[in-house]
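ESCALATION

Customer reports they have been waiting on this structure for their group meeting. Please prioritize. Original submission:
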Amino acid sequence: MSISAGRAAVFFLIALPIGFILTALGFVVTGRAIDAPAMAPWALSIALLAGAVAAFRKSAE
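Update from on-call: job pushed to the front of the queue and completed.
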C-alpha cells in the first residue's frame, strides 16, 4: 500500500472550506452561536479525515 501525499494535500485543501460549511450548518441546526474559534477544530477534523482517506485510497489504475 502506498501513501499519496499530493492527493492528501489536494483533498485537504478542497475539504477545508467544505468542513467550515458543514460545521456552520451543524451549528445552526443545534442552535449554537457561529464563531470561527469554535468552528475551526471541527472543520480541520473534517478536512484531515478527507485527506487521510484520500491518501490511503487506491487509485483506479
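Sent to customer with the following note: Residues 5-30 form the longest helix (26 residues).
Escalation resolved.
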